[in-house]
Amino acid sequence: MFFQGIRNMGANMDLSRGSKGMTMTQLDLIKDYYGKVLASKNDLKTTACCSAESLAPHLSRLVAQIHDEVRAKFYGCGVPIPSCLEGLTVLDLGCGTGRDCYLLSSLVGPKGKVIGVDMTDEQLATARKYQDYHRNIFQLKESNISFRQGFIEDLTGLDIADNSVDLVVSNCVINLSPDKERVFAEIFRVLKPGGELYFSDVYADRRLPDRLRSDPILLGECLGGALYFEDFRRILAKQNCLDSRTVSRSEIMVTDPELRQRIGNARFFSITTRSFKLPLEDRCEDYGQVAWYKGTIEHAPHTFALDDHHIFETGKPMTVCSNTASMLQDTRYRQHFRVEGDTSTHFGLFDCGPQTAAQASGSNAGACC
Ligand SMILES: C[S@@+](CC[C@H](N)C(=O)[O-])C[C@H]1O[C@@H](n2cnc3c(N)ncnc32)[C@H](O)[C@@H]1O
Questions:
Q1: Which residue positions in the chain have pLDDT lower than 50?
Q2: Residue 53 DSSP label
Q3: Where are the domains of the chain?
Q4: Which residue of 103, 135, 193, 307 is surrounded by the most CB atoms within 10 Å?
Q5: Secondary-structure class of domain 10-276 per CATH
Q6: Fold topology of 289-360
């Protein structure tokens, strides 16, 4: 019954022709594209599903150990791998052939677990084929990954309980969903309080017209379904997530002249964001709080980047808004920060540009988080 509901999603899109020339819904089209049309990343027509983001050295070392076939079929657009992962339960939405699941498997270690969800048989078959190979490579007694076939819009159908997951990641997938609001509702249902959503995806600088949203090539290549970033913010707000942070952002260049012509002036970006299941405010508010990074996160002895404008240097005090303070002290990052102050006295709107406690001058310029 629910499966039927999912299949009907997008049924009224301009239907297109798949590899067998059949009329397809959006979900069928995507399954066909990733299951049958693409044999490896060499078959992609744009670079949207090809991460240009550089990997931290410790992640590069892990990627070098991933099986060649899994690497050849990696279609991610970013690096949705935050720090402090040991022992966590992580859910990867649209895991594909499992590259990120395998990285996460090594990083969460034997006490953690990774659930990879994907709807496409062929993608999961490749992921599962190398499960034992990676268990061996990463020296785990038992595999800590469970690959599950299903829809990211229906995590209940995959037995993923409310408040059961520490971290949700995803790499270039949510743009492909015909019901993105449902995906975010599911994410915030399964996240534990204080849990984190950290994912990379493709966004557009405007709402795309129907002719682009239903173009099978643009859809399959992760461009046609791209959310206008402001609409992403609005969808999160419906889940009571009022402050999401951009970690990194890079423009995707569509160089194919024919596709470029079809797209017109729209621009596309690969963006990695982090959002927490926390009761935050819609603006950054100043309660005079100050945070110190202790330098204790593995592979980050000198700095910790919460987002693209909160770069904490070890030992250096930073004035923070109450949202940032909560992200640091009400989540798994708490052991790595000292946060002083509480929300008993309000000093007005916070200027969320990076500044040290010494630089803070009582400016009340608009919040920027
Ligand atoms: C661009 S690929 C990215 C795969 C993987 N994250 C990676 O980085 O290689 C998109 C993947 O999402 C899966 N997918 C798309 N929409 C989905 C949905 N609604 N439910 C489950 N999986 C979906 C596809 O089957 C495909 O494997």
A1: 1-23, 354-369
A2: S
A3: 10-276, 289-360
A4: 103
A5: alpha beta
A6: Ribosomal Protein L9; domain 1 (3.40.5)
